[in-house]
Structures are given as C-alpha cells and as structure tokens.
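re: that complex we talked abt at group meeting.

here r the seqs, copy pasted straight from the sheet so there may be weird spacing, ignore it
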Amino acid sequence: MIDLSVEIGSLKLKNPVLAASGTFGYGLEFTPFMDLNKLGGFVVKGLYFSPREGNPPPRLVETASGLINAIGLQGIGVKRFCTEVLPQLQAFQTALIINVCGANEEEYASVVEYLNAYEGISAYELNISCPNVEKGGLCPALKPDSTYSVVKLVKTTSSRPLIAKLSPNVSDIVEIAQSAEEAGADAVSLVNTFLAMAVDVDTRRPKLANVFGGLSGPAIKPIALRMVFQVASHINIPVIGIGGIMSSEDTLEYLICGAKAVEVGTSNFIDPEVCLTIVEDLDRYCQTHGISRIEDIIGTLEL
Amino acid sequence: MRKDSLARITRKESWNNYFLLSFESPEIVQEAQPGQFLMVRINTDTSPLLRRPFSLFSAEDQSGEIFFQITGLGTRLLSEKREGDFIDIIGPLGKGFTVDKDIHQIPFALIGGGRGIAPLYFLAQKLSRAGGVVRVYYGGKSTGDLPVRERFSNVDLSLTCTTEDGSLGTRGQITEAFEADLDKDLSVSRIYACGPELMLRKIAEIAAAQAIPAEISLESVMGCGFGACWGCVKKIRKDEGIGWHKVCEEGPVLNAEDVFWE
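got the structure back, here u go
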C-alpha cells in the first residue's frame, strides 16, 4: 500500500493532486465523470463577496499547446455559494479549498470572514494574481508590498490555512513568495496564468474582447516548473505547483522540484477524469520505483 | 452525459470542405436529443489542445453522425480521420430543441444556413416520425454549401433550398424564402434555426414580428462543454436576469427572444 498523502502545513491531503481554481467550476460539474472523494482536493472557482458579471466574450482563444482565457472571474458571490453550492460539497471526503477574490484588501477579508462561519471548508487560496480583472493585468501579487499587505490582513481574519496564489508576471517571483511567507501565509501556490494576447490578422483586432488574457496549458509548464523550483528553494512554507500539468509525469516533475502538491488546471477541460488518472499513475510510479511514501520524492532534485 | 474514449468511426463522407462522420457509441447516442452536442477530442497530444463542440446530425441505435465544415486546425485534423479510427467524445451535452409530446398539424419550419444544418436533420426525423408536418429551409452561398440536402429525402418533409449565387434553388437568402412563404399565408407553429449569426438575428426579428415561437441553436467557442470554464457565454435572459450565461448549459438551443445580440 503506497502512502500518497501529503501535508500542506496543517492541511492534510490524501494525495497531492488538487484540481485548480477556475478550471473545476464549483466541483459539481465533474461528478458525472468521477468520484470527487478520490481527489487530494479541489479549489473552487474564485469568489468575490458579490456576484460578478465577468468579461464580455470572446473569452477564450486556443494557442499552440495553450489556452488564453479572459473570463474575468464571473461568479455567484460568496452568499449564494454558501446557500446553494456549499451544502452539496460538504458531504465529500476531500479537501475543499475556496479561492478568495477581492477588488480591494477589505473585500478579501470580508469573503474570508463570511466563509469562516461555515463548516466543511479545508483552506482558503487567496487569489491575488488574476490577470483578467484590472486593466493591464494589475493585481496585488505583482509587488512584494501589496502581497505582504493583503496576506497579512487576511491572515488575521482567517480561521483556516491560507494559501497565497502567486502571479508569474513578475521579474522575481521568489521575492513575492518571501513577502507572502513573511506576512504569515501557510503556503503559496504558483503559478497563475501568464498575461498574454492573440491577434486576428484579418481584422487586426485582438482575439479576446478583453485584449489580454491569461495563458495556461502545457505551453507554460517549463516556465512554471522553473519558478516553483526557485521558490521552493528559497522559502520554508509549502509550495503547491501549478502550470500545464497533464499527467503523472508532469506532477512528478513538480514534486521533485519541491512542490508538496500540485493543482491541475486546463487539463480538466480536455479530460474531466484527468486528476484521477494522475492519482492512479502516481501510485503505479511509486510501486515501480519502490517508493512507499510519495513525500519521500518531494524536493529530491539531483543537481 | 458520459465520456466515451473509444467511439469508432464507421463511415466518412466528404464534399470539398464539408464532412459527415459516423461513429459508434451506443450509450451516448441513445441518450441524445436533437440539438444536443458532443465535445470531441481530436488528438491525444496537445494539437489541438481543447475538445471541439459538434451538434449531432443524427443519432440512431448504435450510431451517431456529426456534420462539420473545416474552419480551423481542429476541424481540419478531424477531417483527416479515417474509418476505423477512434475519437474520444463527451456527450450528449446541453439543452436541445423542444419536441412536443402532442404534435399538431400546423407545420414546423426548420431553417439551416450552411453548416448550421447540422442539428436539423436529427430534429426533422424526430418531428416527422412523431407525426409533425415539417418544412426544411436550407440555404448557403452556393450549391457546394448544401451537401447534405439529399439526406432529407429520407424523411417525409418539404425541402426548400436557396443559394446566394443562384446555382441551386431560389437565388437569395434562406430567410427571404421563408418570409416569402409566410407572405403566402403559410402558418408555422414553431421555428427552429441554426446558422450564421446574421441569419439567426433575422429569424429572431421575423419570429418576434409574427409572434411565432422560435428556438435557435447558437455556436460558441467552448473550453469544456460541461459548465466548468465559463468561456462560452453569450448575453442571454434567464430567470435571474440578463447576463453572460453559458451556452453549453443554457443552450446551445435557446428561445430566440432570450438571446441578446451585440
């Protein structure tokens, strides 16, 4: 029996495979395809305090091995989530992580404060890195001081483990991760999408109504992996690796580079069972390689 | 809704850049209703990365068909599939056309423009077998854009074709042919339509002006097809109000009056 469990601080996961926010709806969309209980956990779509309309279409454009999205965090808001969706999620025996959004620091804190009163939530992932909300992709995770400030504020409010989700659109992601750590984050997850664009050469117009969007998918994996390795080498809180994961091999690369767990994103759209396939393949890998605990492989990159 | 990674292609027909693929997937086919769609994974590598949505052209016993035009990388690669190849499909997805339990004798008008004919053959079969009077209007730029017209001779219905260049049927737009019939006192109990946006907007106008119920099938770029990505939205009216709602969940078939054009 292979032990696939990992610990993200006080958050215990039965395996290191989480479904990433924004690619897994509110979780229920995937129940026709798989047993959610078999996941390490899942991160629901980002929630603001109030419902949010999102960006006009077109919101998606496919590029070489990648997807640029500019959804703009459309969502039902935290109150409707707690009355209509959360009761359906509470029965699942898996980590439920809520991705928390805010137009300003106070909104992040008020979403967390609201959610604190509800059972069945395992952790909060602070979405300080969505590129599709402010014009030009502005967000708190672009600067060390704004990262520090929002994490610090929410940490004082949060009754649960707090994961700061970082942006790759910075010159030094280690510096940002260190700010999150200093501010009291229990973990960091990285990376969110890369600010990107695509152009229709016939009309000479951007392919996305929002002009810019966030690039995800296998196209970004090598860059995201490099960033995860750099961050994991320089901070003491757990790192969750995100970016272009399609397989157990991709997952293992992140774990070997120091990620304690991963989030699988875009791949859920293509194969809604992919997270479970990865869990099964990780188990097989451990058996083949004589590894009894997946934790033993984390951060074992040989240089 | 289910996933079938081993739907075997049993037949392929092609006309220039239009294709009709038959595949075997009994469980998905048996659940399917006209107007519903499939998400097809064309390759297991990352080109194309995402699945592509296709309406069901037909669904009977073990087999379904999809009809498509090459419009980009995904459809081009799909067109290169051969008999005996497997495709990975998720479906049936979305809300299809209304097929009433008690069908009366006032005709239904099914209006398809170009590749928008795709979901209307399946619907024509259903309505006709249920005893409905079916009038199909099928239009395109030229004869080559109406490749599946002969399939409709298998069904008890009347078929009107139009081409913009006059190479087949009446010259002009399909909506003009339909309006001409309305002017000749044709009464219609419901319009069902699929095609280019301009055509659908025109149909919505006609339907509103004449107070005919109309259902239209929308095309949209989709990331997943099952509600998770929120990428396929259009401005749609729902109970909770007008906003960006998902075509994959609320549609692809919607009441014409509930769709707001940009």
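couple things i noticed - The domain at 2-93 of chain B is CATH 2.40.30.10 (Elongation Factor Tu (Ef-tu); domain 3). Chain B has a mean pLDDT of 95.
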